[in-house]
Each structure stands twice: as structure tokens, then as C-alpha cells.
Queue: 2 jobs
Job 1
Amino acid sequence: MIESPAEYARLVREILALISAEDADRLVPELLALAEMVDDHWGWEHRKVIDAVRGADERFQGRLVHVLAARYHALEPGTGARRSIVALLGNLGDVRMPAEDKSLDTRAALLSLSAEQDVHYECEQLIRLAELELADGRELPGEFVAVVRRTHLTLWNGKAKLGPLAARLNRPVVNPGEAWADLALAELPELAPAWEQLLAHAATANAARPSAKWEKAGRALIEAVGPEEARSRLVPWLRLVGRPRTRPLLNRGWSADPNATFDPFNADALRGLAWLLSFLPPHPETARTLGALVETSLRKVPGLGPRNPKVANAGVTALARIDSETALAELARLATRVTFKGTLKLLDGALDARAEARGLSREEIEELAVPAYGLTEVGRAEHRLGDVTGLVEVHGTKAVLSWRNATGKAVRSVPAAVRRDHADDLKDLKAAVKDIDKMLSAQSERLDRQFLARRTWPYAAWRERCLDHPLVGTLAAASCGRWTAGRWATPRAPCAHSRTTRWTAAPRYPSGTRWTTNPPRSSPGATGWNGTASPSRSSRPTARCTC
């Protein structure tokens, strides 16, 4: 911000004098000082500085660009001076550089600087740098290829300007800089050639859903690498989606932070990988991974909104194509968590299609989709791993995994024998605990919605799907039971023809009152109960005979 016109005029005069003297080393600090003063806006009177540089000798221009690039890499990431250098170079445009070999250092510095930008606004400079490197027989750095691809996809004139260049850049097969992509690129050299073809095919997924031609090619590649091998590789890759970037990009400050979003080229690859997973035989880990991908893709980024709804939609599409109970459970869980309208519409459509195929209502399919996650009784399961017992218990809306040794004594940490001899079982237990936590939260919200739905069930179905369900029962017990001897006790059953209405208002009671059940009515053929609590008004089930 210009606070002193006199100081501004003096600084401009000094800069013009240094340009005339072709003193690039002394010029750069003064240019950065002026950039801070004008807040990186190089119009109005400041334009005379840009015009003076563009009119200078090409050797001086090359030297200035080299010093600016070197200064950029000497600064700490995220500093304002880095943004000023990028803005300055953008205003200078494609400045001339000498053709001698001495320009190689300047070229390398520009390649490195360009690679740290999410989008490069000087397409001509990208083309010229690429052509010079390729003409000299050098392979373009992966990070530079990445910025060319990002610019090609996102800049308003990127496809027209960079289309031919982007079409020539086939390596690396995905853009480096994201954790999942780096892992995939690191593993590819050790894998069969079909793996690179599969990843390249995934990167062509730029439609809302896979076409018949795309699916046919994808299934052929899956067969080439092996379905089980494909799952064992793709799932670990997708688990890393959403991790912090391994190579941070420059945050210009006036738009969404590119480090919090998905690389647009890699986003297409993620869509393709999600679709490819749906071509594999059903597996719980596949559904779990796709569900996590949907949630990660919908996390909100300041200044942008959801990270990448297209990737989230691809995850939903993949889950909808998988015919398994775990995939259905993920769809039902996501339907209670997702608020983004486009993705929620896909989820509703997938659940409605499943319900119609089974001849059930939407509410019934959501109830039947809740898995037990290994719980053998309401809120509890024991797993024997050698001489050790793993105990999974639900407390409130959290699942806890604890351990007991051969003598039944509780131990604080996972026993060494379990880590050594039952690593896979331990991994499955920990995954189940995480799944229970997510599902408890989702089911709590679903049960709360029943207040507005005014649902009714046959009593036997209600007990099966709610009260006696190993997971949902932990939430339903508190809705209709009574506190006796330190645990929830279930109500007395009504007649076989009764139907249960989930919500009936209960009156206020004095502070300190625990949940109770009223005695059964004396009238024949019906029994009713109303939960009572304090201090606020509550709602509890009521059973009514429909004879």
C-alpha cells in the first residue's frame, strides 16, 4: 500500500536507474519492495517499470529472471515475497532469453518455479520451456508436466493453447505431489506393464458414469492384473486420498488454497479407480474405502465448497454397482451424513433402486442395511485370538476395543502375541471399531428422523431391526427401556398383532427421574409404555394392538 507518494516516486526512479544499468542483483530487492507497496498490482504508474524491463536487452532479461527464480527458491514457502515474484513474472510475460547454453540455468530455475504453481497463466512460456527441454533431449520433470496438465484443464483458454502439448505428455501417468499418486508411481516400476495401462485408463474417466466401452476396457485390464491383485493395490492407494500434499503448491491468497483441493488431472484418475473397484468381486474393504472416498471428497474447503463432488459421485456410483450388504450399508450410512445436493440425489436414487428391486420401502431398506460389524449381542462381542480375548463394547455412540489375557485379567494395550500371530485379525477388529463409530452416529440421526416420519412396524420387525439389533439396539434401548440394576431393561412385549409407533410424547418429570416404563394397561389386547425423563420433554415408542 502506498503510504508516501514521495517514497513511491523515489523507489520507481531507483528501479528505472537499475534497469538502465542492467544491475539485476540490486534490482530484485527493490522490485520486491515496490511489489509489496503496490500489493502486486502492476498497472497505472507502476506499468512503466514492467515496460522498462520488457524493453531491455535480452541478456539482462534472462539474468533478471534467473535472479528472481533463485530468490524465489531461497524464500520460505508461503511467504508473500514468493507470491510477489510469481505475480511479477506473470506481468513480465514470456521475456526473451539468450539462446546460448548459459540460459540452461535460467530455464531450469523457471521449470522449477512453474512446477510449484497450481495454474500457470502464461501458456506461451510453458510451451517454450517444454519445447526447449524436449529439443535438447531432456525428459520434462513430473512436477512441470503436472502444472501443464492442470493449466490445460482449468484455465479458460487452456485446452486451446495447451491441447497439443498436453496430448504429448504421457509420463508420468498421474501427477505427482499427492500422497496416493506418489505411492502409485513408486510402485509402478515393480508391477506388470498392464498396471500402467490400467492407471492411464483410469485417468480418462471424465464422464458422469462409465460408458460400456470404458467398462469393457477396464474389465479387460482388471483381468490382466488379476482381480485380487487389483484390490490389494487400489485400496491402499485410495486410502491416502485427502492426505496433505507431498509437494505443496503456491497459495496465491486470492482463491481457494490449492493444497486443500484435489489435483484436477488426478481427480479424473480417482473417478476411474473408484469405478474399477466396482468391477471387482464384492469385499468389505472395497465398500469401506469407497465410503471414505465419498466423505473425503465432500469435505469443505474455504473459498471453494466441497473438495471435489465429481469424485464423490463416482464413489457413490461405484457403491451402487456393488451387490453386497456392506456396500448397501455404506450407501445407507452416507445418506444420513451427506448434505451436498448432487451427491445426496445419487444416494437417494441408489437406495430407492435397491428398495424397488427387493420389493421394500426406502425406510425398510435403510433398516435392513445396518450391519452388525461382528457384534454378537446388543453392543458387545468377544473375539478369541489365541489365549487372548478382544472385547468390543459400545458405550454411548463410541465403540471401545479392550483386551483380556488368558486369566481374564484386563490389559491396557494390544498383547504382543496378537500383534505377532494375528495381525490380520487385529486389523479387521480395529476397522470394525471405526465402522461402528461412524454407523452409530449415522443411525442416531436416522432414528431421530423417525419422529417426523411417524413410522409404524409390526412388533416383531421392530424388535429385530431396532431393539434386538446388535448395533441399533444400543441406541434403541435407551429409547424404550428402564434403568434397572445398572443396565437397560427392555419393556414387556405386547400381543403378537401389535404395531409399534416409534415416537410418542412423554410429559416432563422432576429433575433426577430416570427412564422408566409404565405398568402394562389392564385393557385386553394392548400394552403401552411411555419413557419418561428429565428435565426435558422426550419421545418414546408406543405399542398398539391392530386386531
Note: The mean pLDDT is 82.
Job 2
Amino acid sequence: MYKILLVDDEKLELDAIKHYIRWEDMGIVVAGTAKNGREALKVMEACKPDIILTDVRMPIMNGLEFASKAKQMDKNVKIVFLSGHDEFQYIKAALSIEAMGYLLKPIDTAELAQLMQRVILKCQEDKQLSESSEGTKEKLVRSLSIEQSADMRKKWVRRIAMLPYPLPSIGMYTVCFYSFDSDSVSSKNKEAVLTLAAVKLAELNTVSYSWPVDEFRYCTIAYLNGEPDYAELMRCWHEVIGEANIRYEVVLSVGLSEVGRYLEELHDRYGEAREANGDKFYSGTGRVIPYTPHAASPASPAQPIALAEQLSHAISHLQSDEAASIIAGFFDYFATNRTSKDAIIASTMQLISEIERLFAPLLENSTVGSEHPIIVDWKAVMEPESLEHLHAFLTAWSNQIMHVIREKDHDKNLTVIHQIIEMINIRYGQALTVEDLAEHVYLTPNYIRTLFKQKTGETILEYLTKVRIQRASDLLKDKSLKIHEVSRAIGYENVSYFCSLFQKHKGVTPNQYRKKLL
């Protein structure tokens, strides 16, 4: 079944065409409807029709303008115009857009069926031709874009000119090299973004041709009519990047070449666009990046080992602003001079290794938040998405080390807390007082009360009671023990007090708790 898109600003007529014409009998299914050209472009993006039946006179964007843009989006789509006016100017315009036919309202179903039979036959012929010629065209354009030999480039241009739908050999154009830079992109979202880009480019009224470089990188030749068109092309890609991020959560980066004038120059313009796209490593992903020539970068001004000493001094003295400034200077130099990615990674690895060596005693068993050890994610260092990501990683890692240093300074009394907890866990069954605990750690009772509450969030008595009640819960599982025996075993001589305290914490009495267990 072939898909048709119906476009008419008259709702009653649109509904009649959709519901009362026997499309299925013609081998056609209605894929979508729209009430004007602008809306139709969006519907076309979603349903990808083979045939479009559109009214000529419509508000916002008329049928002729829409058909022209639709042809730019999909040169193989078949256009049939519909109008209540048998006017030569419309028929002439329709022919210029290579329309398949022009029907007058009200529609004659027999005439429509005859025309659709011709349209479907043309769809079948074009499909066979397209599959052959488009495959050839893509191979030729790919070859031209990477060809080193000037003589061979002339050969590829001559062969492209012989295709059924050739690229212009002369004319201003820009090469757009774009990449999907999200962590993961579904095939559905990738196709949606590629279609979105095609729609936006079609709105520029410019000729363009696109081909895949690999699974996540694509290239487009966009022909221009002058400097204003270049600015519009940049605006167009800004919109594509923004919508791709908002609608599909896809990060798209676009490199633009300088303006070319001859197709034979495609190799140079392709190289510029690819290099511009590669500059996302320095400027960040999710941007439009025009090509800028860069001189060869000099060596790094600061040796990583010397810089490590400066950075370690700032870290050890908890000078976070100074550490941030040193790291920023380290990466700013690379960004300004466009130092090669491999050289940047090598310098960063050397810097981190030296910092690791200097802080080895501190980092050996240290953790952040008592959860994860501080280790270097070498994969993130060796395969960074951008200079910005590498900068952020080194900053975060330095901050982690400073956090450990602060924790070490603040938690010198943790040993005291651990001694108190250990003593409670061992002697909970005895008459244990705060004074006993204070004497054990050689501190005053008031000081350990404050310190324990500060570090654990609960008082010493609350912790002691919690340990005793938990131990009582375990002992109650042994039905041979009487309640008063359990009470004494956990340090309470007064059984009534024990029962009251147990019920307060567990919501039931010791006897009720035991019955629930048995």
C-alpha cells in the first residue's frame, strides 16, 4: 500500500476526501491530513508519504509553496494539485514543480482513480531507479569527499553529473558534518532527528544532499545563495540542535566548512567540516562550530610534574579556589592552542599519576562519604568526550581529595566514638554509666555526651537503650528464658521498667512479642 497525505483548508472537503473515496481499492492508505502547508510539512515529517494531494489556495502557506518545500524534503514524493480554479497560472506553476496532475473540485472519482493508477506506476518505476541511482550517487559523493588526487576528483565530478539527479557542479555551498554525541541514541530517535534536520533544511529553500559517514556521523552539502544564506544555515542548525535535545534528549554537534564554489572542492570542504566538528573536544558538544584554521600548537608551557607540585600544595592546604585556578590554567592553554587530543590526555594522565603518588598514604584506604574509595576512572581520562569533561573530572577528583583531608581533620575524635560504641556493645548487660565510658576514654562525661550526639545523631543513653532492646529481642526467641532473666541479662534489674521500655520501642510487651515469634 502506498501512503498519501491530504492537504486542504476546508474541513468538510478534507473529511469527504479522506472518508468517502475508496483509497484502499487503489492500493493507497491515508497516512495523514493537514489544513495548510506549514502543518503539512510537520505531518510529512512524521508519516513520510509517497503521494501528496494538496489544495492550491490555502492560508499561512499555499499549496504551491508547500509542494516546493516537500520536494526538497523528498524529491521522490508525488504531488497532485487540487483546486476549484481552472487557471492557467496554477497549472503552469504545478508543471514547474513536476506535479503528477491537477484535479478540479469537485473531484471526479473516475478521473482520480485513473490519475492515481499513473502515480503508483511512477512510484514503482522511481523506486527501482532510485534504489540503483541513489546507491551509486552515495558511493560517488563519498569517494569525492575523501579523494586525495585532483585528477580522480574531476573523474568523480563527471560521473556525478551523469546521474539522474546530479549535484550542481558549480554553486556556493557549505558542508555540514554532524555527529550524535549522546551516551546512547535509539534508532528511532536518530531517524527522528535526521528527518527534523531535513525538514529544517527544506524550509531554507536550498538544495541539499546528505549521506551517512558511519553509524553516528552524517554529512550534508547545503547549497547557498550568498552570505545571508550562511547565517540562515547556522540558525537552522541551532534550531535542530535545540529541538533534538528537548524533544529526543539527543546531543547533536555540527561542524560547518567554509563556503565552496565548485563540487570539485568537496574534499577540502569536507575536511574543514570534519575538523570543525572535531573542535567540539575544545568548545563542548551540542553546538554549531564554524571552521577556523588553527596553527600547529606549541608544547605545553608547564610540565605536568611541576604543575602537580603546585596543585598538591593547594589541595593539601585546602585552597579550593587556587586549585581550581591551576586546573583552569592547565586546560585553558590546551583550548587556546588547540593542542592535540592525544597530547592533552597524556599530560593529564601524567599529572593525575603524580598527584596520586604524592597523596598515596592518604588515598590508600580513604573513602568519600564512607561509601566509595577514591579511585581514578582511567577510562574517563583516556576517552573524554571533550576538554570540558576532562576539566570537570580533574576538578571533581581534586575536590574529593580535599574532602578527605577535611574529614580527617574533623574526625580525629572518631576513634573515641568507636571506643565508646565498642564498650557499650560489650558491656550492655552491666550497670553502665556515662561516667564509666568517660573514664574508659580519658575524657569528661559532658564532653563525650556532646561529641557522641554530634557524630552519631543520638545520645549515649539512646544508643545504649537501642542495643539493649535489640539484644532483648534476640533473647526472647529462647522460650526457656523467663522475662526477668532477659531483663537482667541486658542490664535492667527492674523488670517493670524493662517491660515499659520494651513496649515503648517495639509497640508490644515482651510476652506479646514472644507470642508473635512462636
Note: DSSP finds 23 helices and 13 strands in the chain.
